[in-house]
Write a structure and sequence with these properties.
CATH superfamily: Ribonuclease H-like superfamily/Ribonuclease H
Strand order of the largest sheet: 3-2-1-4
Number of helices: 2
CATH topology: Nucleotidyltransferase, domain 5
Oligomer: single chain
CATH architecture: 2-Layer Sandwich
Radius of gyration: 14 Å
Distance between the termini: 29 Å
Number of domains: 1
Largest sheet: 4 strands, mixed
Number of strands: 4
Helix content: 10-25%
Length: 101
Amino acid sequence: MSFKPAPQGTSAPLELIQSDLGGSMQHTSFGGCHCFMLLIDDFTKFTALYFLTKNSDAAKSFKAYRTHVERQNQGRGKEYVIKAVHTDAGGEYTGEAFQEN
């Protein structure tokens, strides 16, 4: 198994986001993408898939995802923000661009 067991028992949206990067694919999409980023909210199971031309585009896509889901979950009597992201610890999310986000 490439993933470590995730903490159980999330009780609200955005408490825990499961994520992984995949690629480089052998075949290129019509849009020129070779990679993808998958994000799943552990509580709601809302799933987002971003197609990337290269893995280094992941930080920009994650920022867009964060903005979207945090804005989407506003107005429920409580402000929801992403609290934790669980990955396979492959190092894809440790770059300088992610530290700025």
